[in-house]
């Protein structure tokens, strides 16, 4: 907290999407429609999964959790972005900026682990069908969800702990429509190379790790389905 008081920057200026009046109206309408779609669609999925007892299975529980995260993730940035669009001078307070970054990365982290869990669920259902129910037990499902949240929080706090110790002494223009670690890390008056590296490595490790695990799960599924359709690759691809 001392660092917070020492720093001279109390708010950040978001350069955002500056453009003509028509473009702004167009962007506002487009983003509002998309945001509404995200919220309504995901809430619909959540309600459906909770209400319909046919959907009380691991796959749909994980899907509903993913929908919940999607609602949260878009709500941390999109409404502020839309309400900022018509303004000439877009600012965000230091604390809101830090909060926004943390929430974004917590939920981003949760989302990535949930995607891995969902891939694992499909891998088990297709490659180990006889043991599916014992492997994807309710206990394992809940463990996946808890692991997702722990990963998200650890990921976000590890980024945050780098950023919060930096001296923000003047430059406060963020070339984006929301706060994010890679942008904010450009601003402090200090030798920031190693911090930039740490932030990039942290997020890079998360996303590349998720990407390769997902890819791997698809390869396993493809090979299994391919073998079962006795070497017919196009049939296997359709199933995949
Ligand atoms: C998230 O997953 C857990 C564990 O499977 C489940 O108990 C919970 O109902 C899910 N949350 C939602 C919103 O569906």
UniProtKB/TrEMBL annotation:
Gene3D superfamilies: Rhodopsin 7-helix transmembrane proteins. It holds the Pfam family 7tm_4. It comes from the Eukaryota. The chain crosses the membrane at residues 25-51, 58-78, 98-120, 141-168, 205-226. It is found in: Cell membrane; Membrane. Its main location: membrane. Keywords: Cell membrane, G-protein coupled receptor, Membrane, Olfaction, Receptor, Sensory transduction, Transducer, Transmembrane, Transmembrane helix. InterPro entries: GPCR_Rhodpsn, GPCR_Rhodpsn_7TM, Olfact_rcpt, Olfactory_Receptors. Residues 41-240 form the G-protein coupled receptors family 1 profile domain. The keyword Transmembrane applies. It is a multi-pass membrane protein. Belongs to the G-protein coupled receptor 1 family. This is Olfactory receptor.
